[in-house]
Every structure is written in C-alpha cells, then in structure tokens.
Amino acid sequence: MASDVPAVSAAVRILERLAAEWPTAVSPGRLVTELGLNRSTCYNILATLQRSGWAASMGERAGWTLGPRLLTLTGVSHGLVATVVQDEIDALSRELGFVVFAVEQDGSGGYTVIAKADRQSGVRVTVGVGDRFPFSAPALMQAFHAWRDPDEFDRMVRRRGVQRFTDSTVTDPDELRSVLEKVRQNGYSRSVQQFDLAQGAAAAAIFDASARPSLVVCTLAFSSELHSENVREVGSLLRTAAERVTRRIGGAFPPGYPKAELTESMA
Description:
Blueprint: H1 6-21, H2 28-35, H3 39-51, E1 55-57, E2 64-66, H4 68-74, H5 78-96, E3 99-105, E4 111-117, E5 132-133, H6 138-145, H7 150-160, H8 173-186, E6 189-192, E7 199-207, E8 213-222, H9 231-248, H10 259-266
Helix pairs in contact: 1-3, 5-9
C-alpha cells in the first residue's frame, strides 16, 4: 500500500487550514504550531504554493491566505467577496479617519454604494449603503474606466456626457484621456474639489478573475482634510487596500498595472 509523501501531506494540511480561516489570513507561526510542522519546511511549502498561485502572502505581519489561482478554480461567492471588502474598508477607515466605501457600477452607468466603513464621531463627510453617484463622479469614473476599453469609455462619454460639477472638473476629452493615463500609472484616481468644492476624494479599482474592474473602493473627506498635499499618500493607501481585496478574492491585475508597488505590497 502506497504511503503518504510528507511534503505533499503537509501542503494539503496547510491549504486546509488556510481554507478554514479564509478570508482571514493565517500567520506562519500559527501554521507551524497548530500543524506541528518544522518552521523551515512550512516556509518552503508556502513559498512553493505562492509560486503556483495556490497561496498568497498578505505581508510579513498579516500572514497567508488562499491564492488567486486556487480561488479562481473553486469560485468565490458574492457573500465572501462582501466579507473581504468590508474587512479591508473597516481597517482603512480606522487608519484614515475618513469614510471609506465600495461601489459597483449599476445599469444606468452610475455607481451604487454596496459597503461602507465610517468613523463614529465628529462632523464628517459620509455616505450610506444604497446611495448613488452619477456616471461623471470624477474619482469613481476615472478609477473604473482607466482600466476599461478606451473605445467603450468614449462611447459612454458621447452618450452620457461628462457633467461639470465645479470649475475644477475635467470634462475635455483630451484632458480626460491624460487623466486616465495618470490613473493607470499611479493605480488610483484623485478628485480634489472636482465633485464638490468642499470635498476631496481618492479611489482605486478592485479587479475580478478576468482582470476587469468589478468594484471601486473610495474615500471622501472635507477638502481641508483631503487635499493636494496629502491625496497622493491617501491614494496609495486606497490602492494597497484594493490590491489586497483583488488578491484575496482571486482577482487578476490587468496588463499595464503598475508593478513596483504591487511587488512591494506582496513582500
């Protein structure tokens, strides 16, 4: 009778533990202790699983979770996606002190809030689940359409137009194309006093297994809190959170996605 191969058996046990805890990441220390594995063996198996896309590191302190290839093969339910999104936006809202929310594009071309996280006190900009933003809302429009077919975006612009909300709103087609190129370079969009003179925003796309933007995570704050001097830092945090969600749900990044920060965030 054939006997188990120790390394294969250990890899299966690791995957079973990651699956049991998913979408929460598990630290290597817990895997070593709970599964009774040699530390070096555990790390080597995790590295092999990561190279194959079956496991993913969420960062040195955050631990490990199921990888994008495995999640793509098994499928991820809408409910589990919602759990991952809420987990990430809760953490980001605590860090920023601003409302953070996720939207999906609806049938009208606009965007509907499907999840939100908010600080609990003080005068603040906020939104509610079910609230809608129009197609032209700058940060959301740019975060979604920077990664979609440019011809599709041009058709939508011709059909719907781009609304000018303030004097700072970018509506010229050539300028919009330049803005979308910057979003692709940075991995996030920014809107300071473009939607409302009293507000600033930043947003980043979450991608599905086909590398299409399925959701956008966004933050809003008063323009005295979120402005030209700190929007880059805030935007980078939005991007990092969106990348984590993408990896945790088995999504894929589109061609041209900026790799440097992605690599750093996976270290």
